[in-house]
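This follows on from our talk about sequence and fold. I would like you to pick a protein and set down its sequence and fold. Go ahead and set the record down below:
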Amino acid sequence: MSMNEEPIMESPPEATGASAEGEGRRMNEISRVANMFFSPGETFEDINRKPTWLIPLLIALVFSLAVGALFRAKVLTPEVFEQMTRQRMEEIMEKRGAQMSEEMMEQALKSSRITYRLWHVFTVGSTLLMLIVIAGVYFLVLLLLQAEAPFKKVFSVVTWSWMVYAVASGVIAAITLLLKSPETIDPLNLESIAATNLAAFLSRRETSPAVYSLASSLDIFSIWFLILLSIGFSKISKKVSVKKAAIAVFALWILYILGKAGFASFQGVA
């Protein structure tokens, strides 16, 4: 090389298409919320890079609590709830061939009033517990499938999928509650609020508990939730395709609804 020649500088390697595309797909929490409804596959890919759960959990709880408050204000008022409790206790004692004293009835009603006032606490606690249990079960299933998916990512997929379920079903339920007359809604038949499952077309009192339980499980939003789980698990797993994840997800769901129907038949209550 002569003294007058300038040294040839090597240009830095260009970013690969995959890495550049991955950088472009980074989403914040607001983008994730919107994209979960329209592009769940892409959203779960982003969740796989950075799993989160707090924001979707809070959104799901807000919708659940809002719909619950509306339902109690329009349908399940304190008076209706107390009347239902009284009827339920009388039915239980009648099946046992015994009579309930006024003192026992008053104690039962007192407990029911406490339950009614603390419904929001039960809603938050039961929702969180349910999501942890679902995530735990599917974490074990994915472990058996050698998916190499950590619990944090599994819980994130479950929570984001549940957010979609809570928002979609909550909006439909709220609209229906606002449009329907309270007298046309059976407080014992929550599934009849909106016709999104087969139980909406059945009478709870005239249908066997097992059949009613199965019908209530065949819900549009529940199936949507399961589909989202299948997509999400395939995105956070190294060796599990969408098809394989769907088989595992729906197989467990079928076992669950059959067990629930059997329990309802045994208890005599759907």
User: Anything to note?
Assistant: The longest helix spans residues 151-179. The chain is about 70% helix and 0% strand. Residues 90 and 96 are 10 Å apart (CA to CA). Confidence is low (pLDDT under 50) at residues 1-24.
